[in-house]
Amino acid sequence: VQLVESGGGSVQAGGSLRLSCAASGLATSDSCMGWFRQAPGKEREGVAGIDTDDYISYGDSVKGRFTISRDNAKNTVYLQMNSLKPEDSATYYCAARGRGKWCLLGGYWGQGTQVTVS
Q1: Is residue 92 scored above 90 in pLDDT?
Q2: What pLDDT shows up at residue 17?
Q3: What is the reported pLDDT for 105?
Q4: Measured between alpha carbons, how far is 58 from 29 in angstroms, rounded to an integer?
């Protein structure tokens, strides 16, 4: 299994980014998929998750601003991030097939993509 994130970068506050997570070795259509983030000196924080029944969860700090989606034909999961704030700056990781609403516990993780909001 391999998860490869892309789409990170630097953006001004109020801007948008779309992160992608391309999966291989598993099917996004029948996998719990999620995003979490970690900033230096801070705890890991769940951002969004979509389970195998397409039930979606969001972290409280991103509700109304971030949207998770998946394109099963491309075996890719996306995280659309709007109205970005400096506190959203972190390394964002894709997770798959783990336990919990973020799909990360005991699951597969990508290498991460950096998001910086100034």
Answers
A1: yes
A2: 98
A3: 85
A4: 19
3-state secondary structure the chain: CEEEEECCEEECCCCCEEEEEEEECCCHHHCCEEEEEECCCCCCEEEEEECCCCCEEECCCCCCCEEEEEECCCCEEEEEECCCCHHHCEEEEEEECCECCCCCECCEECCCEEEEEC
CA 41, distance to chain mean position in Å, is 20
Burial of 84 (0-12, 13-18, 19+ CB in 10 A): buried
pLDDT per residue as tens digits for the range 78-87: 999 999 999 9
Tens of pLDDT, residue by residue over 28-81, are 999 999 999 999 999 999 999 999 999 999 999 999 999 999 999 999 999 999
